[in-house]
Amino acid sequence: MNLKDCHNVEDFRKLAKKKLPSPIFHYIDGGSDDEITLRRNTDSFNNYDLIPNVLTGVSNVDLSTTVLGQKIDFPLFLSATAMHRLYHHEGERATAKAAEKMNTMFGISTMSNTSIEEIGALTNGPKLFQLYIHKDKGLTNNLIERCKKSGFKSMCLTVDAVVAGNRERDHRTGFSPPPRLTLESLLSFVLHPEWSLNYLFRKKFELANIIHMTNKGSSIDKSVMNYMNEQFETKMSWADAEYCVKKWGGPFALKGVMSVEDAKKAIDIGCTAIIISNHGGRQLDGSRTPFDQLAEIVDAVGDKIEVILDGGVKRGTHVLKALALGAKACSFGKGYLFALGAAGQKGVENLLLKMKAEINRDMILMGCKSIKELNRSKVVLRKK
Which of 26, 134, 279, 318 is the catalytic position? Predict the structure, then answer.
């Protein structure tokens, strides 16, 4: 199997499984506890059916939209995910360049292996920075100020990961970021020499945005999960979030909102967007899926704040269903990380091309000339 055999997210997943050592692949693929929420994130889209209109004379479709103050060519963007060098030696540079080529937004994480400054200089495309609040307020302020200086136009604050979820697959595979050789993982690294040699002999693995302020999480004897548990502010409050919104002073989203109550509070503290997300099923297992919560949240706040759906998106039809229920756009993480692990920048570009083509084709089949035409009349909840 190679890149030309990849036609959808599942194909990229299979190729990534072939290319990556087992602990690395399962770190992308897995969720928390029994992985019930992980599976439901995608399955939940099947609860709704699309209702097309025919004979509408559609040929050219306008997929563009504006999210967090930045125009993108189609309503799907790359959610911020950590440590891209685990999956490909070019790391966030590869994903940022792929997103810029497709003119969609690229999210860079606080926990990235490439710095804010490097990404800011590398790409003029739409981008946002994903912030975590640290116990050290000076570190949080430093991240915000550096984003301003590096040309970032938008920011999101992740609020559902004050501690790391219980990712039991990682315990079973012996995964630790940075990777450590254990009896469980040694054979898999040996059997994937291309990945292992790139990891060992190319740029050193580090958390580029915080390495200058703390050495935790950047050496072999301190895992990133420990860094999260020790350094992230577990007592993060609405006051802390409001402080970040005001300090940033531009388009700002809360990522990890799952309730109407919290969506309303996000408006109260000045957010311009919310990202409905359960962290890809990697945090609280048994929680609702973002798609299942979407309509209720949109009905409550959709006219006051941008609503973005994150979680379980694997098909163009998933994006159409979310937009029909009122989402402004969708984002995804696992899908493009599989593509990155499978074939680097080319893999991510290839997946984004296919996802855009799917959305475009599905819009024509729906009889819609613009994503603005997607509304509740285009979907129906299947009766059980």
Answer: 279
Sketch out the chain's domains with CATH numbers. Answer: 3-381 (3.20.20.70)
In this prediction, residue 154 carries a pLDDT of 97
What's the full length of the chain, in residues? 384
Q: How far apart are the first and last CA of the chain?
A: 39
279 an active-site residue?
yes
CA–CA dist 101, 106 (Å, integer): 11
- Which residue type does 205 have? F
Extended beta strands in 13-119, E state: 48-50, 65-67, 70-72, 76-81, 106-109
Q: What is the pLDDT of residues 245-289, one digit of tens each?
A: 999 999 999 999 999 999 999 999 999 999 999 999 998 999 999
Within 8 A by CB and 6+ apart from 20, the residues are: 28, 87, 192, 195, 341
Question: Rounded to the nearest 5°, which phi and psi values hold at 22?
Answer: -55, -45
Low-confidence residues in the chain, pLDDT < 50: 215-222
Reference 28, options 170, 159, 163, 194; nearest CA is 170
Which residues sit opposite 253 in a β-bridge? 156, 273
According to the model, what pLDDT value does residue 182 have? Answer: 67
Structure tokens at 28: 């992308």
Position 216 scores a pLDDT of 45
> pLDDT tens digit string along 315-334?
999 999 999 999 999 999 99
Q: What are the structure tokens assigned to 13, written together?
A: 């997943």
By the 8 A CB rule, do 101 and 107 touch? no
